[in-house]
Amino acid sequence: MSPRSVTLIVLLVLSEAVGLAIGEVFFRLFVSAIPPVGQSTFTANASHVAHITYGAGVGVVLFLWALLGMGAGGIMSKFGKKDPSKA
């Protein structure tokens, strides 16, 4: 595998891990905010699935945002270099 492929795979895995962690944090906030009387097992389980799904989506958005930043950085580095002999 090329170094670029390895970099993209590692970036995807890390982005998804961060996204899932965000989903889990927000689920914990949800559980702590809702009193036990107002929460059933179904609500807790459905909410957990929804928060994890949301976190996976956030991971994809983070991955795409990082790709956009990497692409913009590559483009800017090409345009930013000036040939000293033509100055």
Account of the protein in words:
Helix 1 runs antiparallel to helix 2. The protein is mainly alpha-helical. The two termini are 41 Å apart. The model has no long low-confidence stretch (mean pLDDT 90). 82% of the residues lie in helices and 0% in strands.
Explain the layout of strands and helices.
Blueprint: H1 3-33, H2 41-80
> What is the CA-CA span between the terminal residues?
41 Å
The structure class reads mainly alpha
Q: Work out the helicity level.
A: over 70%
What are the segments in which pLDDT stays under 50 over at least 5 consecutive residues?
none
- What composes the largest sheet? none
* Oligomer type: single chain
Radius of gyration: 21 Å
Q: Please provide the count of β strands.
A: 0
Percent strand: under 5%
Query: So what's the overall shape?
Result: elongated
Number of helices: 2
Helix and strand run: HH
Mean pLDDT: 90
